[in-house]
Amino acid sequence: MNPDREMVDAVLADAPGAFERLVRAHQDLCWHIIYRIVRHPEDTRDLCQEAFLRVHQHLRQYRYESKLKSWIGRVAYTVALRHMERLRLPIAEPAGNDEVDLLDAVDDGFDLEAAWADEERHRYLHTAIDALPPLQRTLLTLYHLDELPIPEIAQITGLAAGTIKSHLFRTRARLRETLEGVAV
Amino acid sequence: MSTESREDELEREWALQERALDAERRCEAPGGDARLQRYRAVARALREPVVPSLPMDFARVVARRAREDAARAGRFEQRFAVALVALLGGAGLFFLLRDGGAALASVPVATNAWVLALAACVGVSTLAQWWGARRYR
Prior knowledge:
The complex is a heterodimer.
Chain A: H1 3-12, H2 18-38, H3 41-58, H4 68-86, H5 102-106, H6 118-130, H7 134-145, H8 150-157, H9 161-178
Helix pairs in contact in A: 1-2, 2-3, 2-4, 2-7, 3-4, 4-8, 7-9
Chain B: H1 3-25, H2 34-46, H3 58-106, H4 109-136
Helix pairs in contact in B: 1-2
């Protein structure tokens, strides 16, 4: 039996511990999606809880048209987007602003000479990643850390596969450029 | 630069990014040119766990909350259904007592017996279903 179907059936039949298992299996993905967008641990925890309560409430509407992971990811993504909308915060940088130099975001108080050391270079790169707009940060995390293929990321975010590939390509190139002045 | 060569260049750069990601996934030894090394450093940083992370008992807490919410919603639905049935029954009884005497008298006895039999069948079937569901739980 399909593991997704098995898990969903168990939750719908109210089997003991079934929903807890479902949460445990997908909580990292939800955390990554929401934290990368919201960037506030307390809010992220509350929003993760909200996302899973919605999953529990609407699980009967899941039609197995995508993987359960993608469906839950989509719920988490929507919850995070609504939160950003409520706070009137943008999740993507304005169109035509792709060439913004990430060095601008990390230059303040950062010593390029010291970045020769491994630890410093590491910190430098993470500062650059943190300085990315929420959407780009989320796409990179889903692709690199959660190892989701582009079509699944498309199902979660509702973006076209080509758009996702373009974001990944440009953002990785920009991050690589930030390392140009730093030894690797 | 022609469009084709520009596209080729982008395709090569994408392939380099993917090669760096693949090398990091396979934990390959460092190697290749500086450009690949930089992409590998980017891929390595992006594969690091997101900190902070969720509390250890998050799944248990959420599952308990979901159960409580579902029970609360179920209780509300049950009470609402009982209230509606009581309202409907009360209204039916009221109109039956007020205006139903003549109507009941006009119904032939045989029809009444069939109606009673049908009601008995429906009642037994519903009770059997309810009992079965209760045992299954």
